[in-house]
Amino acid sequence: MIILPEIAKITTQKKAKDRYNIFLKEHEKEYYGFSVNEDLLITFHLHKGQMLTPDMITQIQEKDSSYKAYTLSVRYLSYRMRSEQEIIDYLIRKEVDEQYIGEVTTRLKREGLIDDLVFAEALVRTRMETSTKGPLLVKKELADKGVSADLTTQALSLYTFDKQFSKVEKLINKKLSASSKKSYQQQLDSAKQTAIQKGFGFDVISEVIGQINSTRDEEEEYNAIVFQGEKLVTKFQKKESGQGWKLKVKAALFRKGFPADLIDRFLDEYAEEH
């Protein structure tokens, strides 16, 4: 005659009030069997004196493992929205068995707790409203979070050309309005590079550059030439004999983006003063 284990008692765990320890008894010997969540306790109608077959115990434990993975995921989602891949990676880090990860993500999607398109759209809106990131950086961020290319494209449609234009325009104007000893062209090139690094495309950057004021106050530009030109004179006069240093200085200032007429003005005035 096969004797099935019997539930001897059920106790509440001290550190997790929604979990219960199930103690079994066989041949008058009582021992700890397993633990379950409160929902499973109710689902399987577990109670003292109940006989459990090995298959029932296995089924209960499998359901409980899946439920643990689910509650882990819900807790992880409570801090902020997550992509499906983020949930999967998190459960892997928590050493959840692979067979339960698929069950959990399917349930979370069914319950609307994870939705990669909703997640992607929310992230795009957040980056547009709270950061200077352009669409290319946001696209990379979504890819890193495992969002598919199709869903990423759909979400990035929220980041319209007009919104990109506005951000790039502010960024470039801020760069150009800052006091600088560089040439206007150097400042403009630096602003372009910053916009590229922020993740904006050449199309919107070119459009902004084409519409902003492309000139700088002549005296500001000349002051920048004097600042850089005097350093170059000191550098090349030590290396070049005769008037060779002038050609070197002129070429260097031209490479830095200064206009030829202001370079000549600087060299003429420098020659008069020295």
Would you give an account of this structure?
With 274 residues, this protein is mostly helical. Among the domains are: 116-156, Arc Repressor Mutant, subunit A, CATH 1.10.10.10; 161-211, Arc Repressor Mutant, subunit A (Orthogonal Bundle); 219-273, Arc Repressor Mutant, subunit A, CATH 1.10.10. Helices cover 63% and strands 9% of the residues. It has 13 helices and three strands; from the N terminus they run βββααααααααααααα. It has helices spanning 38-43, 54-77, 84-93, 98-110, 116-130, 135-144, 149-156, 161-177, 184-197, 202-211, 218-237, 244-255, 260-273, and strands at residues 6-12, 19-26, 29-37. It has a three-stranded antiparallel beta sheet with strand order 1-2-3. The longest helix has 24 residues, at 54-77. The N and C termini lie far apart (117 Å). The mean pLDDT is 88. Residues 115-156 form the RecX second three-helical domain. It is found in: Cytoplasm. Modulates RecA activity.
Q: How are the secondary structure elements laid out?
A:
Elements: E1 6-12, E2 19-26, E3 29-37, H1 38-43, H2 54-77, H3 84-93, H4 98-110, H5 116-130, H6 135-144, H7 149-156, H8 161-177, H9 184-197, H10 202-211, H11 218-237, H12 244-255, H13 260-273
Antiparallel strand pairs: 1-2, 2-3
